[in-house]
Amino acid sequence: MGNAYDNYDELVHTLSGLDSLHDTMGIFYQNVNMDAEDIDEVPQPVLPTEQRRRSRKRKLDVTPVEIAPYRKKPRMDKFEYPTIDHQPLAELSHQALKLDTLFMVGHSMDTKTVPMWGGFNARVHQDKLPKQVVHYLPNINRPINRDDVVAETMRLSMKCAEECEQRYGLVTYDLDVAKTAHKIQVTNRPEFDNLFVMFGVFHILMCLFRAI
């Protein structure tokens, strides 16, 4: 299982583009136990008629979440993960080249039956990853770049891991929030020693493009 958190914009526009409203939205994902009852077949609760009528309203009801203040000053120590074990990369370029050539030839000959590149690869690719289910966590009506919000999301991630009987927790942030999380992890030792903070790929790709 794992968690992921990011900003959720409230669609409030300002002239400068700044000072808009941001909430913190989190998701929780875990592998489905295929030996247990299929999650798609779990019956949904039947709501009373009055409650069903109310649920038709397109309104976001936000339940306030009490967050403990964070009064420490996060600090960063040496950020390094030394390793001497390196596994060779799988040779996939030749296989990808053959599939791309097969797609171009097949699609040029029959555009009605052969799907586009994404659909073509989806048909020939065998997904061996386990099935996962995604749950939405309670919305936090504060921006994620605050220290107290980051600390709260880290506690929630540890709680999710504990309830799933996992020794370690896993949480993913974007690059700026992940740096704050690492500082809080160092400052609050050993509270978050069993939490792995992962970097989201979006901002890492942006940094790579900027470097290139």
Entry keywords:
5 strands; globular; alpha/beta; 212 residues; 2 domains; five-stranded mixed sheet; 6 helices
Number of domains: 2
Main beta-sheet strand count, sense and barrel state = 5 strands, mixed
Helix content: 25-40%
Number of strands: 5
**pLDDT under 50 segments (min length 5)?**
41-52
Verbal overview:
This protein has 212 residues and is an alpha/beta fold. The chain folds into 2 domains: 2-44 and 52-81 and 139-211, no CATH class; 92-129, no CATH class. Helices cover 34% and strands 16% of the residues. The protein contains 6 helices and 5 strands; from the N terminus they run ββαααβαβαβα. Helix 4 (147-163) packs across helix 5 (175-187). The longest helix is centred in the middle third of the chain and has 17 residues, at 93-109. It starts with a strand and ends with a helix.
Condensed summary:
The protein is an alpha/beta fold. 34% of the residues lie in helices and 16% in strands. A five-stranded mixed sheet has the order 3-2-1-4-5.
Question: Topology, pairings included?
Answer:
Layout: E1 2-9, E2 22-31, H1 49-54, H2 93-109, H3 117-124, E3 132-136, H4 147-163, E4 169-173, H5 175-187, E5 195-199, H6 201-211
Parallel strand pairs: 1-4, 4-5
Antiparallel strand pairs: 1-2, 2-3
